[in-house]
Design goal:
29% of the residues lie in helices and 29% in strands. By secondary structure, the chain is of the alpha+beta class.
Amino acid sequence: PHYSLPGLAVLRRAQGRGHARQLLDAVHLIVEADPTAIGIALDTDTPENVSLYQHFGYETTARVDGGGLTMDCMLRRNE
């Protein structure tokens, strides 16, 4: 079993101030506290977000082309 992060957004004018880090850190603490979970998964259709999530330990597990929309499926495993 794993958790799923359906969405994460920071207003453009508030970006670059560590808000995404704070949100992800809080979510990661919850997921890591669950001994039954293998980690947390998310999907993104924004190529710029892939490197952001990789920075936080997510790996791309699949890339799906849905008729012109490419979705990166990512997973951050519990350690």
